[in-house]
Design brief:
alpha/beta; Rossmann fold; eight-stranded mixed β-sheet; two-stranded antiparallel sheet; phosphopantothenate--cysteine ligase activity; CoaB-like_sf
Length: 326
């Protein structure tokens, strides 16, 4: 075998790729304010405070965009309505968790999933004296949504952090995970966002709108660094981590879920097919697989899923305490 030329560059590690990504990324807007709100939220809900939540979970939700220009007109998007993340947030709050909700702007929101999709104006009407009121057909849904949402906000149990681009999402994830590191095993990550696998590096991106007069567009995308590996190794190594694997081909789904479990050190990988992701999922762990099915069309599969994950997280915390004592 021929020797490798001395001029060849060694392959970059995941850490090097992540560092290069963050160095080149446009700075997160209001980064200092976001960091301050995170620190205050985590400090309030740190383990050991009497009467506090059973844990803190970061739920990521919605799809990331990949801008094609720095002053973005065109972008590549990932499919995700945010339904799973929004529903799961509701059930985590119901289970007694404090939730950091990293969500795509314009995606589904907790407690708003059953409101009309076309326009919020469909929820209101003008009364006889021009006062704004809710029509009878929406009264129950709106009252429940407002009551549940205000309770979570007023009790300081829900912190919402919006993103649009892959750059914003990964910077938020880094901030949240490093802030949650102090929670140890009491922290949980629930990665329901649809994160881009490929992107255009900021430094190689066109500054202005790409002109169509130039003919066909040829573009080479770079791979997004595998941040779950970095999070697991450096940012929040003791946290309980749940990721999702969505595929259109059922023949490769479980194999890829098991690969992700080992490669990124996840506690659970939730495998689901695009064709029936609302009705059935398979929880893949180091000890085996468990299939979860929606019981009826009126139920959310997320309710069963979160119940199982809460139990697994509790067992993980108990085991960590036992390991410390021995």
């Amino acid at each position: 075998m021929d020797p490798v030329p001395t001029s060849a560059e060694p392959p970059r590690s995941s850490e090097d790729e992540a560092a290069a990504f963050f160095r080149a990324a446009p700075p997160l807007r209001d980064r200092d304010a976001v960091a301050a709100s995170l620190d205050a939220f985590v400090a309030r809900h740190s383990a050991g405070t009497g009467g506090g939540p059973v844990g803190v979970v970061c739920v990521t939700s919605g799809g990331t965009t990949v801008p094609l220009e720095q002053r973005c007109v065109r972008y590549i998007d990932n499919f995700s309505s945010g339904q799973r993340g929004a529903a799961s947030t509701e059930y985590f709050l119901k289970a007694g968790y404090a939730v950091i909700f990293i969500h795509r702007r314009g995606s589904k929101q907790p407690y708003c999933r059953f409101l009309p999709e076309d326009s919020f104006l469909d929820v209101f009407e003008l009364g006889e004296g021009s006062e704004i009121q809710v029509p009878e057909s929406h009264t129950t849904v709106v009252k429940t949504a407002i009551s549940s949402y205000r309770k979570a906000i007023d009790e300081g149990l829900l912190l919402k952090l919006p993103f649009t681009t892959i750059f914003e999402y990964l910077q938020l994830l880094q901030l949240v995970s490093t802030a949650m590191n102090c929670l140890g095993h009491h922290g949980m990550f629930y990665f329901a966002a649809a994160v881009s696998d490929f992107y255009v590096p900021w430094e190689s991106m066109a500054k202005h709108k790409i002109e169509s007069a130039g003919g066909p567009l040829n573009m080479q995308l770079s791979q997004v660094p595998k941040m779950l590996f970095i999070l697991r190794k450096h940012w929040a190594p003791k946290a309980f981590c749940v990721s999702f694997k969505l595929e259109t081909d059922p023949d490769i789904l479980l194999h890829k879920a098991e690969m992700a479990l080992r490669k990124y050190g996840m506690n659970v990988v939730v495998a689901n097919e695009l064709a029936n992701y609302k009705d059935v999922v398979v929880m893949v762990t180091s000890s085996g697989r468990k299939t979860v099915r929606r019981q009826s069309k009126e139920d959310d599969i997320e309710e069963q899923l979160i119940d199982l994950l809460v139990k697994m997280h509790s067992d993980n915390i108990t085991q960590s305490h036992s390991d410390q004592e021995t």
